Amino acid sequence: KFTLLEVLCFFRLCIQANLPRNIVMQLDCQGVISEGEKENNRRTMHVQALSHWAPANIGPYSQAVMAGDKLFLAGMVPLVPSTLNLVEGGITTQCAVSLKHIQTVMTAIQKTCTLRFCPLVMCYLTSQDYIPTAMQEWNRALQSSTQESEKPSFSPLVQYCIVPALPKGSQVEWHTCAWPCLEDIANVEELRLVREHSNYNIKSGVIYCKAKPELFSCNIVVDLIDADIIRHIQPVAVFADLLQEYCDICEECGVTEVAPLVKILFSPVLFDYSQIHRVLSEALLKVNKPQNVHAPVVSLVSVNGLQTRHQILAWCQ
């Protein structure tokens, strides 16, 4: 049983991160501002009991929140809906089941919504060894959703990262949002950019809607040319280049609205949390930012690893 409610309940993603010793919990929040009752078209979905189609809530949150043109989903772990126990079968089954939960919840909100309408997908895993399997299951689920959809769509960006632990002892958790209400997919643009620097490359993927500037998502990663040269990397220069890339993208895409929260994923083996906070603050002051581009709101997330050994930073928005 599920209910669509016109109440302001939230969705959530929960992971274990490598926080500094003096920080016991980090809470990141996003909100949607409604200027009047007519614009408050938010709907939330609660699965209220054990079922055979989607897992019930395991905490005080909603599986999905529809706000304006965006559908926000809670992080999905591979639970058996009828028991709320982890599914058996290892990482392959866990990836497939949690992706199926995402598709099921999206379809319950809007029948035509598929994985193809997710601009950025985050995959949290507990081991680097699981990445090939997660990529394989993602491609399989994406292909299946493409075949079932009659509407044209875009190619989602996907960021894989490794964390110490996930809810219920799961090996994987998928998290995303969707743009299910696009009337004309022709207004959606996709960019793939690579900028070469002396010791690293900055690779960017961007999906945005020309007609609706608030529909904007980007994934920017810093890839070392050689993993052994990490000791020669200057953090100030890396973040200055990263922020400049973001500002250039915003200007090119015409993004002048306040952009969604940015998560910067990094490994504490390579970067220190307080060091990144200081360096990022300095870089924000020095970056060549056009007047019409808002400074991003940033959350620093310390993880065990990213998609490859060469990837040292990931900007997820």
Give a description of the structure:
With 317 residues, the chain is of the alpha+beta class. Helices cover 22% and strands 25% of the residues. The chain has four helices and 13 strands. It has helices at residues 90-109, 131-148, 235-253, 273-286; strands spanning 2-5, 43-47, 64-67, 70-73, 120-125, 157-162, 172-178, 188-196, 200-209, 216-224, 262-266, 298-302, 311-316. A hairpin with a 2-residue loop joins strand 3 and strand 4 (70-73). The relative contact order is 0.13.
Task: Identify the overall geometry.
Answer: globular
Number of strands: 13
CATH class of the largest domain, anyone? Alpha Beta
Question: What's the CATH superfamily of the largest domain, by name?
Answer: RutC-like
Strand content: 25-35%
Write the layout of secondary structure elements.
Blueprint: E1 2-5, E2 43-47, E3 64-67, E4 70-73, H1 90-109, E5 120-125, H2 131-148, E6 157-162, E7 172-178, E8 188-196, E9 200-209, E10 216-224, H3 235-253, E11 262-266, H4 273-286, E12 298-302, E13 311-316
Parallel strand pairs: 5-6, 11-12
Antiparallel strand pairs: 1-2, 2-3, 3-4, 4-7, 5-7, 8-9, 9-10, 10-13, 11-13
Helix pairs in contact: 1-2, 3-4
Structure summary:
With 317 residues, this protein is an alpha+beta fold.
